[in-house]
Amino acid sequence: xxxxxxxxxxxxxxxxxxxxxxxxxxxxxxxxxxxxxxxxxxxxxxxxxxxxxxxxxxxxxxxxxxxxxxxxxxxxxxxxxxxxxxxxxxxxxxxxxxxxxxxxxxxxxxxxxxxxxxxxxxxxxxxxxxxxxxxxxxxxxxxxxxxxxxxxxxxxxxxxx
Length: 161
Known about the structure:
It is a single chain. The chain is mostly helical. It has a two-stranded antiparallel ribbon with strand order 1-2. The protein has a domain at 30-135: Orthogonal Bundle (Arc Repressor Mutant, subunit A), CATH 1.10.10. It has six helices and two strands. A hairpin with a 7-residue loop joins strand 1 (76-80) and strand 2. It has helices at residues 2-23, 32-44, 49-56, 60-72, 94-118, 121-140, and strands at 76-80, 88-92. The two termini are 31 Å apart.
C-alpha cells in the first residue's frame, strides 16, 4: 500500500510542477502542440503527419492546420520520403530546433531559480537522486494491453526540461 500512496503523491506533484512551468511561460511562447511536434522531431527525426497526430492524440485536420502554420513560420520542412515518394516526411528546421531549445532552456532556468531559492544544496542533491529514480520507474512502466475494438491510445513522451 505504501507504493500506491507514493505513486499517487508522485503523480500529483509531477503534474503540479508541469502545470506551474506551463503557467509561467512567456505569453509569446509556442503552444504545447507545436512544442510537442518540435520535441518529437528533435528526439526521433523526420516523421509523417499521421504518426505525429497519433503521437499527440490530435485529429488529422488539426494536424494539417498546425503543420501549415509551422511550415509558414519555417519551423518545419516537408519533403517526399526517399523510399516511398507517396509519403511526406516532416523534419525539424534549424529555426524550429532553436525555438524548442530556447523554450526548454527557459523552463530549466525557471526551475533552477526556484530550486536555488527554496532548497538547500543537500536537498538539491536529493532531488537529483530522485530524478534518476523517476527515470528508472518511467522506463519500467508497461503499456496497457489493447482493449478489444480500441483503435489506439495516446502516446506521450516527456521532454527533459
